[in-house]
Amino acid sequence: MSDEKIRGLLSTAGQESPLTPGTVPGDVPEGLAWWRGKAQESLFSASTASPGSWSANDDAYRLSAFIDSCYDDSEHAESLRDAIMDQFPPDSEEGLFTAVARKASPFSALAYALGPDAVMRLPGWFGDFLFDAEQVRTQLPAAEETLALTGVRRRDVVERIHSWMTGLGDDPNHDADELLDGPLRVLRHAISTGQGAAGHVRWY
Fold first, then answer.
1. pTM to 2 decimals?
2. Is residue 34 classed exposed, middle or buried when 0-12, 13-18 and 19+ CB atoms within 10 A define those classes?
């Protein structure tokens, strides 16, 4: 989106820092501390009922609930998300990336795979952001450091995404590589065209 459109969206929404809480909810630091203690563990075990899939343990459900609790579902945030979606092009193109799944959230899968410290380096707040062109340029290096993975690290992240999407969802064929590459493609496209960019997580 152009900076002009972004300013218009923010003006209509009456927000200066969209989709990012002005103050972090009090239970978030506690939840992050717990997550950091579990970050190196697998929260899933191989499914005996469905070969190639995974079964979630109690900590996986707890982490899912924590990530969900960080979602801003206030009326003004949802209204802004609606306005942003109205700007989406009708057809897929280089500047658009979407990840859709039943039951399990693709962003939560990505968060589990990357770990808490990496997630906090991502642009915005738990998958939500609205940046003008200058902010995109500022945020891209951290996004690349977090998502442009190779080798063993990428393989492990892809496997953890797969375990989430089968252990908490029913999407064994979810494109984990695209979940890493798609957001970077959008940010790089925004820079190459001198535009801003938006991202958000939605539940239906």
1. 0.90
2. middle
